[in-house]
Amino acid sequence: MEKNISCRYMQVKDHDEVRELLAGNRLPTDRVNAGNTIMLVAEQGGRIIGCGGIDPIGESGILQSLVVNKKNRSRGCGSLLVDRLISVAALHALRELFLLTVSGRDFFHKLGFSPIGGETIPSQVRQTVAWKNPDCAAATSMHLDITRQARYFPQETLRLRDDLPGVQLWAVSLQKTMLTYFTVDANSSFPQHSHESEQITMVLSGALYFTVHGDTRKVGKGEVIALPADVEHAVFTLDEKATAVDAWSPVMKRYQ
């Protein structure tokens, strides 16, 4: 693969450049503004050279709007974009991906996708605009089972999202286990709660204070606390920000 190619989430400032790239390759541009679509761009030297998107539909996703400019094709950019899009799909708790392709069957097959018959495609996917488009009548439907793959998550895919006030996180999960990363601002708190998931927390910086059965313990940098299922507890910070990772089993659905 050519060096110095990186992928990141599309930003508002990229919209015009991405539309131009899609239109120049006779692809629809409506997904650029679609609130449900997750778009990534590939960059080299500060210039966008490719893009791709995923439309989540329940636990399925449609991979579309994948394009690389002509100058940068056959240099690994397309494969990198697909790899990152699969990782992003996994981060959004999608279990499978579908796509339509006219000329890219061999390309996607090398990346793990397999042709799939129309009758086995979920109805909610078959009812989308992409599958109903007459121009795609000759296209091949392809499928990837994400749950059967080991996934790599580069830093640029692990985007923090808001949780409670003063709290942000990202989460990576398999079917039975989950890992979360939290940033917790100073003087923030998780009210008393419990959950069926077992929880093991390791503090990476600052300190978290756990109150369990009326007893408060400080968990500082490099320290760990393990909470059995269904144990009532509260968590808070004092005058410094904290970061921590948590292991969960079974998966905490609210963080998916």
How would you describe what is shown here?
This protein is mainly β and 256 residues long. The protein has two domains: 5-148, Aminopeptidase (3-Layer(aba) Sandwich), CATH 3.40.630; 160-255, Jelly Rolls (Sandwich). It has five helices and 17 strands. It has helices at 15-23, 77-91, 105-110, 123-126, 129-132, and strands at 5-9, 38-44, 47-57, 60-68, 96-101, 114-115, 140-145, 161-162, 167-173, 178-184, 189-193, 198-205, 207-212, 215-220, 224-227, 233-236, 242-249. The strands form three sheets. It has a seven-stranded mixed β-sheet with strand order 1-2-3-4-5-7-6, sandwiched between helices. The chain has a six-stranded antiparallel β-sheet with strand order 8-9-10-17-12-15, with no helix packed on it. The protein has a four-stranded antiparallel β-sheet with strand order 11-16-13-14, with no helix packed on it. Strand 4 (60-68), helix 2 (77-91) and strand 5 form a beta-alpha-beta unit. The model has no long low-confidence stretch (mean pLDDT 92).
Q: Based on helices, strands and strand pairing, what is the structural class? A: mainly beta
Regarding CATH, which class of the largest domain?
Alpha Beta
How are strands sequenced across the largest beta sheet? 1-2-3-4-5-7-6
- The figure for the number of domains is 2
Summed up, the helix count is: 5
The 3D shape can be described as elongated
CATH topology of the largest domain: Aminopeptidase
Q: Which regions are unreliable across 5 or more consecutive residues at pLDDT < 50?
A: none
* Fraction in helix: 10-25%
- Rg is 21 Å
Number of strands: 17
Biggest pleated sheet: 7 strands, mixed
CATH superfamily of the largest domain: Gcn5-related N-acetyltransferase (GNAT)
Strand content: 35-45%
Compressed to H and E, one letter per element, the order equals EHEEEHEHEHHEEEEEEEEEEE
